[in-house]
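Write out the 3D structure for:
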Amino acid sequence: QVQLQESGPGLVKPSQTLSLTCTVSGDSITTNYYAWSWIRQPPGKGLEWMGVITEDGSTDYSPSLKSRTSISRDTSKNQFSLQLSSVTPEDTAVYYCTSVRGGGFDYWGQGTQVTVSS
């Protein structure tokens, strides 16, 4: 079974870059039947898909976040990461990393709260 665990700072100052890492166990992030995504949920709002990285390292991003978002990976550590630049308080959310298979998000991390505040 695939397990995912998010890690990173819980507090980020406005205008700075938010950086989170997802550590995957139970399978390789280079396996050809999973892709890997970041999803967030602001307080009182629904889930928002942010982007995906595939098994060959290709990426795709939400159009609304594309200019500020970067997803990368470290295959030696079986990790993938999120960077969101120029954050504002509106980027305050619970951030989740997930596996993607067959168009669905099947395994999720527990989520990590990130607050943007000075």
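The longest strand covers residues 93-101.
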